Amino acid sequence: MSNKQRSWLVVPANKPDAVAQAAKSGADVVVLDLVEFIRDAHKPAARANIRAAIDAVRAGGAQAYAQIDPQQHEADLHACVWPGLSGVVVSRAETTTQMSAIDKHLFLLEKERGIPADTIGMVLALETARGNQDAYAIATASPRVRALTLGRADLVMDLRPEPSGEIHQMPYLMERLIIIARAIGATPLGAWWRAPDRGLLSTAENTLQAAKRGRAVGFKGALCLRAEQVAPLNKMYA
Amino acid sequence: MTYQTKQKVRRSGLTMPIVTPRFVDQAWRRGCDFVTLDLEDSVPQDRKAYARTLVKESIPKITRAGTEAFVRINHEHMAADTEAAVWPGLTRIKYPKTETADEVRALDALISKYEKERGIAPGTVEIDVGIETAVGVTNVYDIAAASPRIKEFGATNGGYDMSRDLGVEMFVPFDQFVYLRGEANLAARALGLGVRAAPFIANTTGSVSDGNRALRLAEAARACGLRVGGGGLNPAVVESHNVGYTPSGEDVSDALWVLEQFERLQETDEPWLEVEGRVIDRYEAERARGTLAWADVCAERNREKTEAVAKVKAQIQAQEQAQQ
Fold first, then answer.
1. What domain range is B90 assigned to?
2. pLDDT (tens digit, 9 = 90+) per residue, B114-123?
3. What number does CATH give the domain A7-236?
4. Which residues contact A65 (CB under 8 A, 6 or more apart)?
5. Which of chain A's residues have a Cβ under 8 Å away from the Cβ of B201?
């Protein structure tokens, strides 16, 4: 298995077929989502499916991450921290208290489940205004933080395209995130999406352009939602 | 009459020198959501004291037909101007060139004092801080968080004072204020305040009376989900701002369509649907609901203003007839 992390394909954890396809997509990382694409009614099934999904992802040659909800971190971590998991993406990361609690819970679960200490890393998705405002404090709240990303901030913060095609506020937020990530030794993940790209969704061609611009401003890999976005990310973030 | 619409609607406004009676007396006819009576840049130094004596009587002239009355004070005469400005009917003080949170707290305390002394419900008068200097940008979050009277916050295109303080040229065809706007607008969002922002559209002429350009800007802001107008200097931009910030009929029917599609999505277990090349998901549904709610509030505000103006006109007519 490669340790590259150019492309991070997010896939709903409650859909075994989608997970199996993602595993074979060529993505360096498959992010098993428990938050963005899972309705409350489907959460128990998604959590129950995660352990098998981790194995499926690894069998396909990709690294396995899980996307967790900091508001429900105990249940999400309990479901996903198993041998084979490389880390967690913390959706809508907002407070240092959340980060410390997640860190502590990871420590306990690693110990309980025979995983070497500090194996599980954290990727913070700064998707809210509060999370971005306090990014530096949040990102330094746990030594496990390995990467920062804006995730789907355009949707969560309701930032829409300007006449220029830039998504409102995004040039500022990207640059701010990259500076903070570099300052603390974490990896900035993302791409310079422009209209009509939306919430990490884009065509293969537009993903290529977004990654080309993203690489130029300092991103080192990006999250995406469709298998066809993986190849352009792997190419541009090579 | 005073403002009735529950949610504040500040799409359009005019800033005018309080010492020019022909502007102040006619302001209620302009269709503005708000009028800012200026004690600052448009009033010469030797008329500042006189200008202060006009505020109390000018406020009812502005509010008589449903327009909100704001006053812009001088940074360097905060105490005297605030004493002159806080009277019944006033809903906001604009405090220019704000640089520190302490200044805002001092202003807040003064307003509280005069609200109490003059029988105004506590918290009625908002503070609108202007970030117009480099020091202000440096302290932007602390300033925005300094008083619960701050309800709307942000930065648009820099403006004259900011440009002078930073030594940048105005009216160039590229965006010089990415960082300034980003800092101010992120602070506003993090604090849950109304966001006063604007997408970048080059203005290389410096015109303040171009109604078409004002409409384009307001429409672009609306397309970005922005709802707070900064006002203008020329009556020619008022209607453009009223229209530009209000959802169009097309926006409303599109929002209804999105919600119909979202109903369909709810019947599946898919996280999103693609319909006619568009993604339908909970974020789109939320935007659509927001558009419909904002359209309702704008319609209510328009109705309120129209009725108030008609009433004042009828009163004036009756007075004229009585005199004849």
1. 13-246
2. 999 999 999 9
3. 3.20.20.60
4. A8, A29, A30, A31, A32, A85, A86, A87, A88, A89, A123
5. 163
